[in-house]
Design brief:
Number of strands: 13
Strand content: 5-15%
Largest sheet: 5 strands, antiparallel
Oligomer: single chain
Order of helices and strands: HHHHHHHHHEEHEEEEHEEEHHEEEEHH
Shape: elongated
Distance between the termini: 29 Å
Number of helices: 15
Radius of gyration: 34 Å
Strand order of the largest sheet: 6-1-9-8-7
Mean pLDDT: 85
Low-confidence stretches: none
């Protein structure tokens, strides 16, 4: 057979049977529990004994895996070829090593008639030869960041078993089916090939049925756990509002609240809850009261205390003169929030809209997501204004500073242990602002859970999505066993 024909046959065979192998891949990972392409590649090299078969195997493997990592050749980038090239190198080394083992143990003749030949092939050539592809492939996936360290062993084992079964099943099968015709052997080939194919077809039917059943179980598990996490997230937001309500009730029931009393009460409120980053007290101050107010703070030892305002550059300056102000008169904790103490929140259009709506509705209202004056990590936060009325008189407002990631920190940790990632977005008025990004990329095999809820007048969207850790902890061992044992029986 011409060199080019051997090259093309090897390439196309690997592509076609590789596609079959991809259909048999079991999450998580890139490896299949049965890889027929490895058996076809070895058969062709033993038969043709040509470099063309090795190179054809390499090109077929490269194109097959390039289609996987690029989403069927739709997403290219500079280093996209590295993983397919690494796996292709492993495939070429494996088929070459397997052929050398075959010649050393069984000779150059492609024959599986003698029992000793079958034993040596199944127990030595196939399992030893397939160590190469599994090691190179799993190593490349790990070092290039496609699989995590805790999934390397499973990937390697699945890859090795898949290649080994592919070789033990398909190399002899093709050798018998496509071997040179001898007189009286037609019936023998029929009795060998047809039953093997029938058993293998039944195994595939059981395998796909098992995969479908296990996928349904996983979907149900995802929905149940996602709903549990959703309730926990909403509960944390409710607790944050409840803490503001307790401070509001304290002011409502008191004729006067000193700074020391404020600090003590808020400290006790937040002692066992980290949902709130800070709590403040703001109230309207007329311009005529400004001088006396600033002087009173200085007399208490805060020499530089004054009303301030935040400018667009993110710096603070002394508040410009206007008829009234809404400054932060108390804040806890002071440490880390010094820039917010004395800040006139009504100078900001974002904060003023929330203030006006809170006064109008007499309900807690959150600002748009914003970066605080005292923020050093450039994280988005909410400020919730909780109006405090005594009869019809507005006393002031309790302000709560919330970083959403801190509100649901415990839930994020629990979700990570269960293999879920959580994202929270503000979707008020048709605009989407991501408040908490996904901790790990979602796994494309499963659909997650999305819901919306209202928090202090703003609509938040909650996405709870299974990631690769969920798939890893819930390996489909049943389907894996069905395919592996069934393929072994077929051999």
């Amino acid at each position: 057979m011409p060199w080019l024909s051997q090259f093309v046959i090897a390439c196309l065979s690997y592509l076609i049977f590789g596609q079959l192998g991809l259909m048999l891949a079991i999450p998580p990972g890139f490896a299949s529990a049965l890889w027929p392409a490895a058996g076809i590649a070895l058969y062709l090299l033993i038969r043709h004994r040509s470099l063309a078969s090795v190179l054809g195997t390499g090109l077929g493997s490269f194109l097959l895996n390039l289609s996987v990592v690029t989403g069927k050749f739709s997403q290219f980038h500079a280093l996209v070829w590295v993983l397919p090239a690494s796996i292709a190198l492993g495939a070429m080394l494996q088929v070459s090593f397997g052929c050398l083992l075959y010649r050393y143990l069984l000779g150059a003749r492609l024959d599986f008639d003698a029992p000793i030949s079958i034993v040596r092939f199944n127990l030595l050539i196939a399992p030893i030869g397939c160590l190469v592809g599994a090691s190179v492939g799993a190593g490349a996936l790990y070092f290039l960041g496609f699989v995590q360290a805790d999934n390397v062993a499973f990937t390697w084992l699945t890859w090795w078993i898949g290649d080994t079964i592919g070789v033990t099943l398909f190399t002899p099968l093709f050798a018998i089916a496509l071997g040179r015709q001898k007189s009286g052997e037609t019936m023998r080939k029929t009795w060998v090939v047809l039953p093997t194919l029938a058993i293998f077809s039944a195994v595939l039917a059981f395998f796909f049925s098992s995969m479908s059943s296990q996928r349904d179980v996983s979907k149900l598990k995802i929905q149940e756990q996602a709903r549990t996490l959703e309730v926990m997230v909403q509960k944390r937001f409710e607790i944050s509002i409840a803490n503001l309500n307790s401070v509001a009730a304290f002011y409502q029931a008191s004729e006067y609240v000193s700074q020391e009393e404020f600090m003590q009460f808020v400290a006790s409120t937040l002692r066992y809850d980290n949902a709130l980053h800070a709590i403040g007290w703001i109230q309207e101050i007329k311009h005529a009261q400004r001088g006396a107010l600033e002087q009173s703070y200085r007399q208490r030892g805060y020499e530089n205390w004054q009303l301030t305002e935040l400018v667009d550059t993110g710096t603070l300056r002394r508040a410009s003169q206007r008829s009234s102000y809404w400054p932060v008169l108390n804040i806890y904790p002071i440490s880390g929030n010094e820039r917010g103490w004395g800040l006139d929140v009504s100078h900001s259009s974002q904060r003023k809209r929330a203030l006006d709506l809170a006064k109008q509705t007499r309900e807690p209202v959150a600002t748009e997501p914003l970066i605080l004056a005292q923020e050093t990590e450039h994280l988005l936060s909410f400020i919730v204004y909780f109006p405090v009325y005594r009869e019809d008189q507005l006393l002031g407002m309790v302000s709560g500073i919330f970083r959403v990631a801190e509100i649901i920190e415990e839930v994020l940790s629990l979700a990570a242990d269960k293999g879920f990632s959580i994202a929270v977005s503000d979707v008020e008025a048709g605009k989407r602002v991501t408040l908490v990004p996904l901790q790990r990329p979602a796994n494309s095999l499963y659909v997650g859970h999305r819901s919306e809820f209202v928090y202090a007048g703003r609509t938040l969207e909650l996405d709870i999505l299974p990631n690769d850790q969920f798939v890893l902890t819930g390996k489909d061992w049943i389907s894996w066993a069905v395919l592996t044992v069934g393929a072994l029986i077929s051999t």
